[in-house]
Amino acid sequence: MVEFDAQAGQGASGDAELSREQLAADEVDLAAGLQGLSAMVDAGRGVETVLGEVAEFAAQAIPGVDGTGVTLIQPVGATMGIQAWSVTAPFVREIDIIQYEALQEGPCISCMQTRRAVVSGSLGADMRWPRFAAQAARLGVASVLSLPLLIGDQVVGSINAYAHGPDVFGEHSVRLGSAFARPAAVSVYNTQLLVRARERAQQLQRALDSRGAIDQAMGIIRGRLGCSAEEAFDRLRQISMSDNSELYVVAQRLVDEAVRRAAARNRPS
Q1: What span, in angstroms and rounded, lies between the C-alpha atoms of 82 and 241?
Q2: Is there a domain that residue 225 lies in?
Q3: 185 FRET partner, CA 20 to 30 A, in 6, 112, 176, 220?
């Protein structure tokens, strides 16, 4: 039996009535969603793009959904800050804005805090999140399944499946959703690591480029004024302050101008 946090008084939500054919079809959809995950190969895509693809695959893998969302968190001290999220339907974005930005309350936040799947079949009457529940019901959302994305004991985000009808998600949905969430967590986490690595590499390259341009500019100033390296750097900094420009920008401009002059002098007449 799959464990999850259910709404008080909620049963298996019709799982017992599922036919053998329906169960088999759901397994096929899960397999297709998992295959889509396995085919994802990094090609310089951003986190939001990957989250969007995972959300689409989740909608395929979890039966009964009308819209899904995938959320990535950035731990901030003892709290969890939402770094990014992507959705498959406009109403999901509305409900997630209420959850993350307006109230900081809802099934997604609960599932990430408890590291357990959370299910509700009648959001308007679910007193676990009284403020959120009322607003979600006004948007016509009755059922939700929230699944934590876990790497070991670390929560990196969540998958949220929503449906307009009541009692859509039960143990069957939790089982399929959990089977999808495990590899989805790896895909999302690895993408986050790759993006961070690319950003660090770009920052390092910018720093190297900046240092090279500054050194060249100092050499040009020393050649023109016959001054020391310290005096050349002070002169470069004065120009930067006077122009209200970054030191690297001033240095690169000076180097580019020196190159243009040299090319003009060496151009055949």
Answers
A1: 38
A2: yes
A3: 6
